[in-house]
Amino acid sequence: MNVRTRFAPSPTGDDIHIGNLSTVLKTWAFAKKNNGQFVLRIEDTDQERLVEGSEQKIEDALKRFSLNYDEGPDVGGEFGPYRQSERLDIYKKYAEELITKGVAYYCFCSKERIEELRKQEEQKEVKTKHLHFCNQNNIEERLSKKESYVIRLKVPEHQDITFDDIVRGKITINTDQIDDQILLKSDGFPTYHLAVVIDDYLMKINYITRADEWISSTPKHILLYQAFGWELPVFCHLPLLRNTDKSKLSKRKNAVWASWYLEQGYLKEAILNYLALMGWTHPEQKEIFSMEEFIEKFDLKDVNPLGPIFDIQKLEWMNGEYIRALSDQELTKRLEEYLIDHPSKDHIAKLVPLVKERIKKLSDFIPLTNFISQSPEYDLNDFNKVKVDDKKEILEKISLTLENIEKPWKKENFENTFQNLAKDLNMGNREMFQLIRLAVSGQLVTPPLFECIKIIGEDEVLNRVKEITKKYPNIPDSKG
RNA sequence: GCCGCGUUCGUCUAGUGGCCUAGGACAUCGGGCUUUCAUCCCGAAAAUCACGGGUUCGACUCCCGUACGCGGUACCA
Hints:
The protein has 480 residues and is mostly helical.
């Protein structure tokens, strides 16, 4: 069987939700694994929640993560259009067909009337099926008068609907849990339930992958497939990502937009790799693997049904692993793309070998290397952390020594000279070099000292050391 | 409320009846390397497998119940 999967987002957010990305990744990988197709369909049926530009952002995000789709709004395919707002007549036709078949009906009740009925029902404490199934007289006349109506599915009573979910196995839900669903809204748009079934059928989607919040809706879809006499697809409900408090991952408690992670300097490969591990384990328990390998090893049936908590610490570790695995050239390229307009931009190539093992995200490059191209800000507290007396005097000696070293400075000579100075001053090498580091960078932690000094340049380094020697100890004792 | 799904170290997880006195990874802590930090290497601590009953010679693994968590219950998806 030719496997066809789809990602069917609603363009109602600022971007792709990271939880969605996790679902898309698995949906995409499953199609690729089976040499099938992965389809992007835009479910823009809620006119009120529509967000301008959202669709474009979703497509951009898929592109940025290299999750390419075979068919979609702007990519060819024989089953289009792939935007539901452009298929309204199709849904209407099928909804009317259901009426003809007697499994759906027109409902002219207003929202207020429905509320009323619902209250009455609660008071009676008796569940009457087909609550909305009323006023079925003079349908033709009311339709021609263009009265407002919806089309509802006539959900049968007391019927167990069972389906076999790839991840969870058999799930049974009784139809008494389901109201007569609206299929076609009064604005002429379909609801999700109608549109998703019709489109999945017409687009020959045979593996329905989606987040597990859809489990309780699945019987509604099955009812529709049965009413039309269509073959059922395979259902696969993937676990929902959670906040630390276990609630479903939400923007109030977490960064949820996929682009945010990219903006923070996480690599797309690392994000995808981490997401792959949410609910799935590599058969050899490998943590780091390529997308190619993921496609090869992944199977929907191996997904764990438990909703995992999104742990940014592990993502960060993994991102560091990916950064270190990059060639210097490639890392340079990534940093240049990432750090547009950054003052140290010209030095990136030279700095890469020095910072590669020190950064976990691309953004970490900035605080680590700012001092290269910008005058340092000094903090007396930092100087106080160097355990040695008479710092002013030592700084003066350092300054003098620096002036007398033969230019261009050579690493071995530079280090020998200051090791000797440390000996003369009866202090440790550690303290000596920390003091130089502070004088040059204003920081206790930097990439390798001498290499940084070479990038900054002898003259500038000398200037900085002289300056701070003059000022010391009259510098602020705490950074803003 | 009703319905559904879930429950192994703080977190992601391995585990499909004996190999489990429960393994790995992140995080944490200690040590080594290092003129700083990091990388790297070594080590430690960390789960009475939610709880209670069964089934079985034997259960983390199968069954039932309870608790807890999450999700659904819209003219939202």
